[in-house]
Design brief:
Layout: H1 3-18, H2 24-36, E1 54-55, E2 61-65, H3 73-76, H4 84-95, E3 116-120, H5 133-149, E4 155-159, H6 161-175, E5 191-192, E6 198-202, H7 207-210, H8 217-230
Parallel strand pairs: 2-3, 2-4, 4-6
Antiparallel strand pairs: 1-3, 5-6
Helix pairs in contact: 1-5, 4-8, 5-6
């Protein structure tokens, strides 16, 4: 597929994702959050729809998170945009050569990614940041369709154990091969070769991890640097 065709396919898919209402619990929650709002965003419009991935259609590195934040991606309409986790992630992507700027405030803030595509295993903000296994599986076809279009991906950076598990399931769905046994466990910095792309583990850049020092800027930068190497970008 040509670069133009791939980009057009991803735009069309994004429209389909944003119209999805397959999970009643997630639909109810994302829309309730948009009605009630956080005080800091009381006068803002919330997107309150499923969030598609974004980035470079020719990306060689996939960055896979858990789900949009209730007052982040669910508000701005772009994954990891407008919340503390995104602040930490995009600052690292800028330092490691994947982004043109270190901040991401809203959907039209000029952020551009190079060689990277950022997405999530579940496309709607879940209550307490905990999607159910059924919701994960219901959302999986969207990720399969997205990854089928992102044909240049060479490595998936999995932000946390939930994303690691989702990536293993995605690989199984895309290549039709059963996952390795015993099932590889998530570890920060852990690597797993395989088709159609390798997996690379990284602690999720949640405040719970970054405020406690479990994940530091140096640690996430090292993972992103390793992703560049595995993808043949350095």
């Amino acid at each position: 597929m040509s670069a133009r065709g791939r980009a057009a396919g991803l735009r069309a898919l994004a429209g389909e994702i944003e119209a999805c209402r397959r999970c009643p619990r997630l639909v109810e929650w994302r829309e309730r959050v948009a009605r009630e709002r956080r005080a800091a965003y009381a006068h803002e419009h919330y997107a309150a729809h499923p969030v598609a991935g974004f980035g470079d259609p020719a990306a060689r590195v996939l960055i896979l998170g858990l789900a949009p934040a209730a007052h982040g991606g669910n508000r701005t309409g772009r994954i990891f945009t407008g919340d503390r986790s995104g602040d930490f992630l995009f600052a690292s992507l800028w330092r490691t050569g994947f982004a043109n700027q270190p901040t991401s405030i809203h959907r039209d803030d000029g952020l551009c990614l190079r060689d990277a595509w950022v997405t999530a295993a579940v496309r709607c903000a879940p209550p307490a940041n905990r999607p159910t296994p059924a919701e994960r599986d219901t959302c999986m076809p969207w990720s399969e369709a997205e990854l089928a279009l992102l044909s240049e991906i060479r490595v998936a950076v999995c932000l946390g154990a939930f994303a690691w598990d989702a990536a293993l399931r995605l690989r199984t769905g895309l290549v039709g091969q059963p996952p390795p046994r015993p099932r590889p466990r998530f570890t920060h910095g852990g690597e797993l070769e395989g088709e159609p792309w390798a997996l690379l583990g990284c602690f999720h850049p949640s405040q719970q991890n970054t405020f406690t020092g479990r994940l530091t800027a140096e640690m996430i930068d090292a993972v992103m640097g390793r992703a560049r190497a595995l993808a043949g970008l350095d």
